Amino acid sequence: MGTFRVQVGVGHPHGGDFLPVSALVDTGAAHSMMPASLLAQLGVTPLERLRFRVADGRRVEFDVADARFNVANRLRICPVIFGPEDRYLLGATTLEIFNLMVDPTSPDPRLVAIEELDL
Fold first, then answer.
1. pLDDT band at residue 119 using 50, 70 and 90 as cut-offs
2. From the CA atom positions of the chain, what is the Rg in Å?
3. What CATH number does residue 53 fall under?
4. Segments forming the whole domain that contains residue 10
5. Cβ contacts of residue 113 below 8 Å, gap of 6+?
6. pLDDT (mean) for 13-25
7. 8, 26 in Cβ contact below 8 A?
């Protein structure tokens, strides 16, 4: 299926402006990840620190919080991991909360609302 990017707005869970970013859709990642500096700029503060196993098998710790996301003109509050400066990932949990999936019928990867598919 490959990877692809989508335009996403990220904001503080209690309101305010969204910052637009280009996020990599990563259905292999459980949670979305945004740069810690971006989340700090929005005033998002960590709720807890959790351990994760990353693709190469290492266990690493990251701060986690909730953030508001605007994806495909839908607004939801989702978990987000405070990541390094170059990580703008939209993970599977966020896609599920938005009721979105990668369209399996399209030759070009894109997100589609699950209720729009005739599966």
1. low
2. 14
3. 2.40.70.10
4. 5-116
5. 72, 99, 100
6. 97
7. no
Measured distance CA(60)–CA(16) in Å, rounded: 31
Placement of tokens 């005033």 in the chain: 43
Residue 48 three-state SS: strand
Nearest to 25 by CA among 84, 82, 72: 72
Q: State the total domains in the chain.
A: 1
DSSP SS3 for 47: coil
Which one-letter amino acid corresponds to residue 41?
Q
pTM over 0.90: yes
Average predicted confidence (pLDDT) for the chain? 93
Q: Residues with Cβ < 8 Å from 84, sequence gap 6 or more?
A: 35, 36
pLDDT digits (tens, 9 = 90+) for 46-103: 999 999 988 889 999 999 999 999 999 999 999 999 999 999 999 999 999 999 999 8
Of 91, 93, 99, 95, whose CA–CA distance to 116 is shortest? Answer: 99
The letter for the amino acid at 63 is D
